[in-house]
Design goal:
The chain is built from 13 helices and 18 strands. 34% of the residues lie in helices and 22% in strands. The structure holds flavin-adenine dinucleotide.
Amino acid sequence: MRTIVVGGGLAGLAAGLDLVDAGQAVTLLEARPTLGGAVQTLPERDGDPSPPPDNGQHVALGCFTAYLHFLARIGQSGAVSRTRLALPVIAADRSVSAIAPGLAALLRYRHISFSDRLTVVRASRRIAAFDPFDHDDETFASLLLRLGQSREAIDRFWDVFIRPALNLRSDEASAALGIFTVQTALLGGGGASDLLLPAAPLGEIHGDAAGRALAAAGADVRVNARVVGLEGDAAVLGDGHRVDGDAFVVALPPAESARLLGEPTPLLDDSPIVSVHLLVDRVILHFPLAALLASAAHWVFDRGRITGRPPANRQYLTVVSSGAPELAATRGRELVGIVARELTERLGSAELLWSRVSREPAATFAGRPGTAALRPGPETSRPNVVRAGAWTNTGWPATMESAVLSGQRAALALTAVANRVEA
Ligand SMILES: Cc1cc2nc3c(=O)[nH]c(=O)nc-3n(C[C@H](O)[C@H](O)[C@H](O)COP(=O)(O)OP(=O)(O)OC[C@H]3O[C@@H](n4cnc5c(N)ncnc54)[C@H](O)[C@@H]3O)c2cc1C
């Protein structure tokens, strides 16, 4: 069977690999000049430190089993460094306390009162027993308040990791996704909450490596190939060329997917991620990464150290702010000023030597209450066409894990169709 995969993000790449490994003839069509979709390294500019910045720091977790399988398949298991979760959280008074897995560690988290820590432990035990999808009708914050959490515990504990994980504040995010995240990562055990940080540029270890793996397995991978229409037996490209196929995987963001499939646009809003990359003239962050409480700069990463290339007597940092539309709308120089000020106030003074901003207005869909029902599965109205993408109904928030999982499920659904046709 000739299968065409439309979209070269992680979902399309994962689907393509599974299909080619199952013996199908695969052609992958990607609109952009590079593969990897939302997981990209920025085009290099003069003066960039080494390695060049990514479009945003990507963090995977130990519970991302499909993503880890994908990395292994493309020969990149060694390209992420894995550490046990021990997230230093820096408060406005510069005091530091760490979030670590396990209920005993929660009791040692000093940024909330001891009585709040006890209620956090009690709430975690209750959350462990919930079925996430019974709770898609309310926000995670409203559930937490019902479970006796104070506003302070929400702001100074839960939102520290829920906001980057769901790319929304607990006040906005569906409780289903909040519960899922707590159960799967924080309480998952067995290294589920381990942090996996890319030790090399994202483009190299995702799009480039997956493209090579696909080509080595016999797939035809084409970039700069925007699909503008799907007909019965062909994908039609923007330049009018047709690429013939018997089956199709549509691995695109929601609106583009609906357009190609002739479906109504899913009522899923976008949520932005803003990343500011900075080179400063001295070391001010003494951890590989940290979260900042009550700051526009949510998490800060020592990119030089994480990639094994710390610049001498300087520090190369990436600051990520998740689900913050007000920052996404702030102009470049002003944004750099805000973020640099927040960092130096919290970490110590330093001279800014270089900066670069990366804005992703549609980094993920906004997983608000009521969105579970808006996320379709792989099947479409046509038996030879399946859908994939981090936004589809994997149960996961829009993460790399969700993207890979959706691609694998789409490939499985198509393989089942092919087997039925052959039988
Ligand atoms: C800045 C940023 C930070 C993030 N941080 C994290 C993180 O820390 N951890 C985490 O797990 N996840 C993170 N994510 C989310 C994660 O990257 C995405 O959920 C995932 O990569 C989406 O993959 P996808 O394949 O579903 O979609 P996409 O990556 O959007 O891929 C879709 C592809 O389709 C292509 N395309 C679109 N239209 C067409 C067309 N007509 N024809 C052909 N091709 C087309 C696009 O160019 C794109 O390459 C982050 C995302 C961003 C943007």
